[in-house]
Amino acid sequence: MEPMTEEQYRVRAEPAYRAVFARPDPFDEPFQPEIEARLVLYGYRWALHPPWLEPVVRGIRQLGESGFFVSALERAKDKNHDGYYHWYVPLGEADTYGPAVYSQQNAVYSTEGRWGIICSDEDHALIGGPTPIIQGIQAAVPDLDARVKEFLSVWKHYHNRNRVNLGWIPGTLSHIYGPERTRALLRDAELQWLLDHDQSETSITAD
User: Fold this and answer.
1) Strand partners, 37
2) With contact defined as beta carbons under 8 Å apart, do 38 and 127 qualify?
3) What is the pLDDT of residue 95?
4) Backbone angles phi, psi at 37, to 5 degrees
5) Is the pLDDT of residue 206 over 80?
6) Fewest CB within a 10 Å sphere: which of 77, 81, 106, 151?
7) In what order do the strands lie in the sheet with 37-42?
8) Phi, then psi, of 40 in degrees rounded to 5
9) 200 has a pLDDT exceeding 50
10) 70 φ, ψ to 5°?
11) Partners of 1 in beta bridges
12) Residue pair 115/20 in contact by the 8 Å Cβ criterion
């Protein structure tokens, strides 16, 4: 795992980051229009781990890439932080970068600007990229649909308990799955009212 200074990031990795991501927010619509195939990954904690690690690494290798970039989207408050916020990770070390980004929203992305994962601090991530890498995840993680239902159920609970803002969910889901499937997902979760009501709450976090 190779750390990069901000200057090295700007030269080496930022063009790839900009090719994948339009904005650095997993609670929004982060992908560039060219990144067409997309999924919600629920049960994603800070970094690649089972069941996501193996299919993502396999998909990256099939694309002919030998590693990926990682960028922390937040700045650590820990005084012991080493000062780096960007890294290059060889595929053989894909399971080792977690401690560097622990508790920070972060982006994992293609060195060639072809795919990316942006993760939140609320156990979900969004992935976008070529269809084969997305299909590989769908084949390897057969409970993906159940995970998305759990994702919506958890946020519904947050709203019912603490009036947490859910206004971001329809736009994010539509960005990932398109409007038709979004309507079906929200209907099944008994959240269809989100399509008709403006959310006035300001907090996204569950706490």
Assistant:
1) 129
2) yes
3) 96
4) -90, 130
5) no
6) 77
7) 2-4, 86-90, 67-72, 106-110, 116-119, 124-129, 37-42
8) -90, 130
9) no
10) -130, 135
11) none
12) yes
Task: Output the CA–CA distances (angstroms, integers) from residue 1 to 11, 69, 121, 182, in the order listed.
Answer: 18, 10, 23, 38
Q: Which residues contact 67 (CB under 8 A, 6 or more apart)?
A: 88, 89, 90, 91, 111
Q: What is the pTM of this model?
A: 0.91
Say yes or no to pLDDT of 202 above 50.
Answer: no
Q: Is 78 exposed, middle or buried (0-12, 13-18, 19+ CB in 10 A)?
A: exposed
Q: How far is CA 40 from the centre of its chain?
A: 7
Task: Give the Cα separation of 145 and 104 in Å (integer).
Answer: 26
Tokens standing for 72?
Answer: 């922390």
Buried b (16+ CB within 10 A) or exposed e, 87-116: bbbeeeebeebeebbeebbbbbbbbebbbb
Report the candidate in 36, 204, 193, 10 with the shortest Cα–Cα distance to residue 116: 36
User: pLDDT (tens digit, 9 = 90+) per residue, 92-108?
Assistant: 999 999 999 988 899 99
Query: Is the Cα dihedral 166, 168, 170, 174 positive or negative?
Result: negative
Q: Using 50, 70 and 90 to split pLDDT, how confident is the model at 122?
A: very high
In the 3-class helix/strand/coil scheme, how is 41-103 assigned residue by residue? EECCCCCCCCCCHHHHHHHHHHCCCCEEEEEECCCCCCCCCCCCCEEEEEHHHCCCCHHHHCC
